[in-house]
Amino acid sequence: MWQKRPSSVSDNDQSTMLSQQPLNASGFSSQTQNPPQTLEDAFSRLSVSASSFNHSPFDFVADSPHGMDDPSKMISCSGWGRGVPSSRSSNLSHPTFTVNYDRFLDSIPLARQRGKPTFGGDFSVVPLSNGMQQKTPVAGFLNDFLCCNGLNNVDLSIDQMRLRWFNDLRRRVLLLATDQHECRTLQETMKTLTREEFSIIFLELINYVSYLIVHPSGNHVVQKMVEICSEEQQTLIVLSVTKCNFQLVRICLSSHGARAVEKLLQHVTTQEQRDRLLLALSPGAAILAKDVNGNRVLLHCLKQFSAEDNEHILNVVAIKCFEISTDQTGCVVMQQCIKDASGETKMKLIAAVISYASLLAEDCFGNYVVQHVLSLKVPGVAVHLLRQLEGRFFYLACNKYGSNVVEKFFQDSDEPISSFIILELLYNPNVAMLLVDPYGNYVIKSALSASKGHVRNALERLIKLNSLTMQSNLYGKKLLAWFNKGRI
């Protein structure tokens, strides 16, 4: 039979029970002697020492320089340990320990709602586990914004965190775009945004495109926008950089702007966008052709678009032919324009060069343009150039730059044209000077290689009659040695 439990315990039994209790339970036995009135009162008396956890509740934001720890270190969110790094979960030994999620989210510097930033810089103070404090730039939240997309195994409100981070991003896009380091992270962030999110960011930046496109850091953000934006957004960018006269030309004169405009030209999707850009560039074609940055944009247009699309630009280049051809950078652009043009536009450019041939032939840069026109071997061009330079070949043969043009005639023109030039040189009373001239001796050498028959015989007689004079001259001696070697 069951025996009734004694209503009291004797003193001997009670002392025996106390002696068997663990030492660390003394506090608990004292509480059992005076039981609390409510359960809440019991929990309020329970004190958990920070030393038992060995870390601050904010330590997880100090594991990386910009906030949240590596997502791979996060444990599963099921159970009481959700949201705590797994490397520290073993320290949380109390089974009744829980996480205040509101405080957890608010403790993340990236999720805090901050005021509107200033361009002078904005920092947040992150407490470290060793009691020190670390200043972290507000811009650093972009790294964690990217990390947020990979926290698929964290049973937190990812949508809520992403929304807070995105709201934080919205207020700082322009500041980040002009930051030397964070602009790179911003570009990566833009690739992870949804179409709706990118549209919001796009609307914040579109009014500052003309400023960003020439900025050392911002131009890279504009280039990334151009790569991922829609056709309508692309049109807004085109309108933004062409809304004022010569605005696009001034942008192309900048090294940063030239690169961004090249990227824009690569990604235009409609004929209307292309026409608007090329029309905006054409008034400043001569300026761009002579500029070390702007010429890259013009050459890109020649390579990217058809001759019909570039017609307005090429017409301006033809009008400014002499100005462009006598420039160190412009002469290269001029040659490329003539090469890539076609039809009537090509003939306009060649006609412009022919009209200035007498001046260009003796110019240090223009002579290359005249030589390029001759090398194309377009029917009738050599004859028109011959008529333009007729009577000046002896002078050009003694000129440092003009002598190159005369030699080009011998190399790339037909025999009748070469013979005409040689005879003009022979009929000059001072023709013997060419044999000992620093530049004329090369012209005579090219003439001997290109001539035949009686014309060549006339040149040989000239050399034989002046051989003694040539022996006493440095240039004449070299020409005579070459001539004698060829006869052997």
Automatic annotation (TrEMBL):
Ranges for domain PUM-HD: 146-487
InterPro entries: ARM-like (IPR011989), ARM-type_fold (IPR016024), PUM-HD (IPR033133), Pumilio_RNA-bd_rpt (IPR001313)
Repeat region (Pumilio), residues: 204-239, 315-351, 388-423, 424-464
Molecular-function GO term, any one: mRNA binding
Record flagged with keyword Repressor: no
Keyword annotations from UniProtKB, A to Z: Repeat, RNA-binding, Translation regulation
Gene Ontology cellular component terms for the protein in this record: cytoplasm
Gene Ontology biological process: regulation of translation
PROSITE patterns: PUM, PUM_HD
Region of interest: Disordered: 1-38
Composition bias, Polar residues: 1-37
Protein name: PUM-HD domain-containing protein
